[in-house]
Write a structure and sequence with these properties.
The chain is built from 8 helices and 5 strands; from the N terminus they run E-H-H-E-H-H-E-H-H-E-H-E-H. It is an alpha/beta fold.
């Protein structure tokens, strides 16, 4: 099952802010994850230098995490802008998740949760993802 993870989940997980996000970070080696390079850049900008080293150590251990450099098709981004998401961030990640055929987008972002019901992928909070697939409740 292919998933996409929103940047905040990396920041919260590596920063020790959210237990569910931390658990998802620990599961990275067992997950098939696709990420746009933009997410990695954003996460790196919001972490301390030691936390950034932890991020890249995690990514190096997770062979099924694919960082995609190819541009997201513009027509897909426009589709998500028309749904009401901001173009520079949310519409981009929504379009990316659909383009990469992710089954889930793991996010706490309320824009995704409210605006994208019935989209090509399902939006789950970290807690929902863990409960649904690992029967873990945090």
């Amino acid at each position: 099952m292919r998933i996409c993870i929103d940047s905040n989940q990396f920041i919260f997980g590596i920063g020790g802010i959210d237990p569910a996000s931390e658990t998802i970070m620990s599961l990275l080696p067992s997950l098939e994850v696709v990420l746009p390079r933009l997410v990695i850049k954003e996460v790196s900008r919001n972490l301390t230098e030691p936390q950034t080293k932890v991020l890249f150590t995690l990514l190096n251990r997770a062979s099924q995490v694919k960082i995609i450099d190819e541009p997201v098709p513009a027509e897909m981004v426009r589709k998500y802008v028309k749904l009401g998401l901001p173009e520079k961030a949310d519409a981009f990640i929504g379009a990316f998740a659909e383009w990469q055929e992710a089954k889930y987008l793991i996010s706490d972002n309320r824009h995704f949760l409210s605006e994208l019901s019935g989209s090509a992928f399902e939006i789950l909070s970290p807690e929902e993802f863990l409960y649904r697939h690992y029967h873990t409740k945090l």
